[in-house]
Every structure is written in structure tokens, then in C-alpha cells.
Write a structure and sequence with these properties.
Blueprint: H1 2-13, H2 23-32, H3 38-51, H4 55-58, H5 63-70, H6 76-94, H7 102-105, H8 113-122, H9 133-142, H10 150-160, H11 163-179
The protein binds a DNA duplex (11 and 11 nucleotides) through residues 16, 30-31, 33-41, 71-79, 82, 109-115, 118, 130, 132-135, 170-171, 174, 178, 183.
DNA sequence: AAAACGGGGGC
DNA sequence: GCCCCAGTTTT
């Protein structure tokens, strides 16, 4: 199947390694990463975990206590509120253990399909597709799907991609999307999978 | 379906 | 000055 071959090429050429596996840290970092660039997310996460290391500690913090720490990631008032609420729920309802099911993760404030699936893959090594704007755009450009919404793309991709590629393709598509297959003026000249691409706008 | 949330960096 | 960024929730 050609799709599988191309997916593996993307994964090989645009690796994204997740050093941190701790479910709580991955969960909080991923919430911080929403609509934020990686560099700023990392600064915010480092600031935060430097002071609050566990859900137990963070659940006792006040929102205003962490504004300055997470400000680099943006949307900081919302995120502060949600992060502390998440910590309280993890402590009170789950005894400090982050749940490992999509259904339970989606109940947490500020956790949608993308965030939940990233946690499932990165921390729990489960097959999970996090379809963000990059994955959505690139899947359509390649001609793998013909969809309007990311959720539609998610279900289509689950049909055409083998499960063992669900996790790895997420991060690799993001890197691919940032470096080469950009939203505007993509760099098709240096694209390693250009010959498999059906996008009409390609140059 | 659209608005709101937001600092930081690229242009 | 304007626009975007591993989105989600509220209106």
C-alpha cells in the first residue's frame, strides 16, 4: 500500500522524539502547548514544574501564583485555571494517577481530542491519532483523504493507516508541516515525498 | 458557526 | 502593525 510507504517516509525524515513520558507532565505540557509554539511551551513548562512537581502540589496552587510562570505559552489565565482544576481532579478522583483512556481524559477541562490523543500515545504508547491543523492539511494535500474537519480526517486516517503508525505520524506530520509542507508557500522543491503528492497547488 | 482566550516571534 | 502558533470552551 502506497500510503503506508509514504507515511513511513515522513516518519523517517521528520522524527519527533518525546523525551518526557511522565503522564502528568505530558498532560500539563500538552495543555500549555495549545495555540503556542514549542519553544514558548518548553519555557512555560520548565518554569511551572520547577516550582510544582506533582499533581498534589499543583492542586494547591492559586491561579495567580502561576500566571507569570506560564505566561510565555499564552492564553495564560485560561490555562492556569484549567491546569489547576485538572490537578485537583487527578488528585481527588484518580488518586494522583492520570487516566489512560480517551473517555476519561476528555472529561478533564481544557482537554479535547488532540490533547487527549497526544497523551495516550506519548505517555501510554497507545495507538492514537492527534489530528491538528498540520495533519489535517497534509492528509488532504497528499490525497489520502478529502475532508472538511479534523475529526473527519481522524476517522478516515484510522481506516487507511495501520495502527502502529498512528502515534508516530502525529509528531512527524507536525515537523514536516513546519519545515516543508507549510500552510502557505510550501517548499515542494526539497520535499522528500513530492513524487507521491497529488496536491494541485504544488509547484 | 463564530468569538474568545494571549504572549512571543516572524515579516 | 499584522498574523500565526501540537486547541478548547463558550456564546
Amino acid at each position: 500500500m502506497e500510503i503506508e510507504k509514504v507515511a513511513k517516509l515522513i516518519i523517517k525524515n521528520f522524527p519527533r522524539d518525546h523525551k518526557e513520558k511522565d503522564p502528568f507532565k505530558v498532560l500539563i505540557t500538552t495543555v500549555l502547548s495549545q495555540r503556542s509554539k514549542d519553544e514558548n511551551t518548553e519555557i512555560a513548562a520548565e518554569n511551572l514544574f520547577n516550582k510544582y512537581k506533582t499533581p498534589f502540589e499543583l492542586s494547591k496552587a492559586k491561579e495567580k501564583d502561576i500566571y507569570e510562570l506560564i505566561k510565555p505559552a499564552g492564553l495564560y489565565r485560561q490555562k492556569a485555571k484549567r491546569i489547576i482544576e485538572i490537578s485537583k481532579i487527578i488528585v481527588e478522583k484518580y488518586s494522583g494517577i492520570v487516566p489512560d483512556s480517551l473517555e476519561e481524559l476528555l472529561k478533564l477541562p481544557g482537554v479535547g481530542r488532540k490533547t487527549a490523543n497526544i497523551v495516550l500515545y506519548v505517555s501510554f504508547s497507545k495507538p492514537a491519532l492527534a489530528v491538528d491543523t498540520h495533519v489535517h492539511r497534509i492528509s488532504n494535500r497528499l490525497g489520502w483523504v478529502n475532508t472538511k474537519t479534523p475529526e473527519e480526517t481522524e476517522f478516515k486516517l484510522m481506516e487507511i493507516l495501520p495502527k502502529n503508525l498512528w502515534g508516530p505520524i502525529n509528531g512527524s506530520m507536525v515537523e514536516f508541516g513546519k519545515k516543508v509542507c507549510k500552510p502557505v508557500s510550501p517548499n515542494c522543491k526539497i520535499c522528500p515525498i513530492s513524487k507521491y503528492c497529488k496536491w494541485e497547488g504544488k509547484r
